[in-house]
Amino acid sequence: MDRKRSYGRVLVVSALVGCLEVALAVVVVLLYVRTQPPPDTPVDRSALAAGLLSFGTLVAVIALLLSVVFVLPAVALADLIARRTGGREAWWVPPVVAALVAPPIVAGAAYNDVRTRSVLLFWAVATAVLSTGGLVARLRRRALVGKVALWGAALVAGTGLLGTLGLAVGLLPAYEPPSIGATAMAGTWVDHTSGTLVFTSDGRVTASGVGDHAPDDPPGGPSRTCSGSGTWSYEPGRDARTQEVRVRVPGCPWPVWSVGGTDRTPRIYLHVGRPGSGKLYQLRKAADGP
User: Residue 280's pLDDT band (boundaries 50, 70, 90)?
Assistant: First the structure.
């Protein structure tokens, strides 16, 4: 062994690796979110910022705790085996210990009726994450903490940059609403309160209990509903994001409906509240529609 082991540095490096792994996971999740339909309710940015701060603190504490209860014993065991075998580096010890730590987690997840495939995937990810911290922390290199911080931050930033570039140029499938067309509009569309719009292929529409929102109404509870019969038309727009559905029912002053959802679960929606509120009132295509 070329350098004396510093278990304090092992602890710091392991905790740092854990934090960087979580940061990388957050970046990947944020990129993944860009490929999915937007949420039905707007995100409170101030609450999100406070949540991220609390989450960051929690991650640091958990990373330090895992370093103490897992990484330090695993590295110490690897050193002991190395001394007993004539100085050979027992690099395989952290991954083996990580795999052995996982069964209680797997058993707990299975007890809660989680699917076996998900449990095994979680076990594999947990094993890989714990192993990485142990494998990196056991290295005896000068300025290891700085190198891990530098290369880890570069990996996180590079993933975010490449992912954003991939979304911009189309290498990653950024979310786009489905191009439903006039034919697919025919059928029943229902909201969360069972209000319906029934479109027919001849351009007629029947509304029953569909929300008529005022600017200050929350998306989950309109103060009024609207019913009646009228006409509708579909406008494809320049692309999938600009397609529109116009519904004309006497006494129902709806603006133009936009298209969202996915190919499997298309939706039409209206913006609710003041401009920029992000609140939506949506109707989904009923599976049993004509």
Answer: confident
> Shortest CA distance to 272 belongs to which of 210, 179, 208?
210
pLDDT at position 289 is 43
Amino acid identity, position 16: L
pLDDT at 108: 55
- 272: closest CA among 284, 263, 283, 280? 280
- H or E element at residue 9: helix 7-33
Band the pLDDT of 203: cuts 50, 70, 90.
very high
| Window from 204-213, 219-228, 263-272 with minimum mean pLDDT | 219-228
CA-CA distance, 99 to 123, in Å (whole number)?
8
Q: At how many degrees (to 10) do helices 116-137 and 7-33 cross?
A: 140
H helix intervals, 85-195: 93-111, 116-137, 144-169, 181-185
Spatial CB neighbours of 44, under 8 Å, sequence gap ≥ 6 = none
pTM here is 0.69
Task: Kindly give, in sequence order, each residue whose CB lies less than 8 Å from that of residue 195, ignoring residues fewer than 6 positions away.
Answer: 207, 208, 209, 210, 211, 225, 283
CA distance 8 to 145: 11
DSSP 3-state of 146: helix
Instruction: Report the 10 Å Cβ neighbour count for 12.
Output: 18
